């Protein structure tokens, strides 16, 4: 969170004391103080108390200016309107109704188009809390890590590998093979997928650089 102002050269000390008009609104860090003052309009002087006011007073002393406050008519910090103008304190700075605005303000792209921000003087961490729910047991939770397309491709690959290996076994094996052999081969691939099996049976058809070799 930061505050901004619109001086052309904020680091240059003013040659003579100047009265600046500062846009300011009450928030959880800066409180409004109405001080009786017969010389002020309405007999009351608008003041603020807070850490941003301390920063403002430090700048006023260093840059040689005094200041008065002006609250935004709508009491907001400023948002972009449909016609391109801004409400709140940002609008006051954009229209040059005030010399600068005292925050803290957050930076966003819309505000950055019409005003200049100073270096950050404070940061705020925002967190969202939610209630902790009771644990739920989902018997199908093992399917969640992979999408439906991946599971479909994996099952199709297992079926295709089972058919291919069974066909090769029928062609190259001298033993009579049955449907039970096909089912066993399929479960072998499933076991490998689930990392429950570390080997094939000795009847597996192996591939070498020289071609198909039957065992």
Automatic annotation (TrEMBL):
It is found in: Membrane. The keyword Transmembrane applies. It is a multi-pass membrane protein. Keywords: Glycoprotein, Ion channel, Ion transport, Ligand-gated ion channel, Membrane, Receptor, Transmembrane, Transmembrane helix, Transport. InterPro entries: Glu/Gly-bd, Ionotropic_Glu_rcpt. This is Glutamate receptor ionotropic, NMDA 2D. Pfam families: Lig_chan-Glu_bd. One of its GO terms (cellular component) is membrane. One of its GO terms (molecular function) is ligand-gated monoatomic ion channel activity. Its main location: membrane. The chain crosses the membrane at residues 150-172. Residues 36-95 form the Ionotropic glutamate receptor L-glutamate and glycine-binding domain.
């Amino acid at each position: 969170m930061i505050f901004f102002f619109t001086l052309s050269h904020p680091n240059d000390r003013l040659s003579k004391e100047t009265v600046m008009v500062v846009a300011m609104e009450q928030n959880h860090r800066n409180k409004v103080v109405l001080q009786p003052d017969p010389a002020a309009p309405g007999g009351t002087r608008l003041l603020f108390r807070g850490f941003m006011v301390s920063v403002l007073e430090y700048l006023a002393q260093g840059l040689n200016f005094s200041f008065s406050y002006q609250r935004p008519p709508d009491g907001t910090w400023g948002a972009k309107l449909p016609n391109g103008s801004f409400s709140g304190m940002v609008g006051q700075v954009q229209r040059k109704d005030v010399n600068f605005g005292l925050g803290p303000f957050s930076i966003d792209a819309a505000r950055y188009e019409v005003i200049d921000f100073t270096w950050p003087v404070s940061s705020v961490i925002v967190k969202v809390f939610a209630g902790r729910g009771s644990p739920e047991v989902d018997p199908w939770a093992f399917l969640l890590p992979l999408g439906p397309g991946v599971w479909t491709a994996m099952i199709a690959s297992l079926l295709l590998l089972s058919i291919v290996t069974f066909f090769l076994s029928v062609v190259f094996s001298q033993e009579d093979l049955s449907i039970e052999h096909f089912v066993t081969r399929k479960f072998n691939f499933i076991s490998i997928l689930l990392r429950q099996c570390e080997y094939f049976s000795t009847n597996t058809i192996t591939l070498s650089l020289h071609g198909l070799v039957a065992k």
